[in-house]
Amino acid sequence: MTIGRVVVYVLAAMLAGVTIGLLKSWPAPEPAGQDVAGPAVASISVKPPATPQAPSSGPAPSSTSEAAPASTPASAAPSSAQQAVRRPGPGPELPPGAPVRAWGEGWWRTVPGTTEQVGTGRVHTYAVEVEQGAVLPAADRVFAETVDAALADRRGWTAGGGVAFRRVDLEEPDVRIRLTATETARAVCGFELPYDTSCYVKGIVYVSTPRWFRGAESFGGDLEAYRRYVVNHEIGHHLGHRHEFCPADGAQAPVMMQQTFSVSNDRLADITAATPQGPKVPRDGKTCKANPWPHPEVTR
Ligand SMILES: [Zn+2]
């Protein structure tokens, strides 16, 4: 009787132990070190691109990158960005539009085609490239034609004299202009300022596809103008130009102004306060008109 009761107690205790053990292990514990910030599905369904091959030493963007180098701490960026969001008027947010693929394969195919030299002076050869998997093939021709048109325009960099361009495909170019998937561009250009943007890093222009397909609020719905702006602005970095600001209220924005974020000096100052993008933006209340051209004053 006593022994039987002890056996019952022992069995009951064992059963309780097993039950508690089961409860503890349900639901299944998260694997240690999982990135809680991202959706779990991303780690199995999306293949990150191979590290984009910025030539030579490491992925750190040069100082001419649109956003801060990846090594810069985010610090107060979100709060200043939120501050900027509250201001009226066009801002740095990506306009709505067609879905854009997040990832490409991390390598770029050359769009075939060459051009005659445009302009006189030092010739900069360029190649037009598209990240594999980032866009549908039909986008290649439009991208290439837009780049060609932006660089050949009479209001472009060649108008200043001393600069010429010629597109190459098989030849090794001086500069590559690459249509680049969202996440690849974020990895290369930085995403401390939480806005998609294009950049120039060590002889390569990375054009972010969400901006290519949706433009920027500053340009309203004028996607063609915005696309020409992006090409001219980033090639401006290749030519050695730094960022500029709105010189006079109501004037044409300099092509080297970060018009993707804003054409208002005050707003640009807010957006870039925590992650400077070159020379300090003056808070002088000046707001310009969006402009894609290095030399908008040229008429004929
Ligand atoms: Zn820039």
UniProtKB/TrEMBL annotation:
Region described as Disordered:
45-101, 274-300
Q: Name the coiled-coil region(s).
A: none
Q: Name one GO molecular function term.
A: metallopeptidase activity
Which interval of the chain is the signal sequence?
Answer: none
Q: Which UniProt keywords apply?
A: Membrane, Transmembrane, Transmembrane helix
* Residues covered by the DUF3152 domain: 94-296
- Span-the-membrane segments of this chain are 6-23
- Ranges annotated as biased composition (Pro residues): 89-98
Q: Which InterPro entries match?
A: DUF3152, MetalloPept_cat_dom_sf
Presence of keyword Cytoplasm = no
Ranges of biased composition (kind: Low complexity)? 53-84
Q: What's the protein here called? A: DUF3152 domain-containing protein
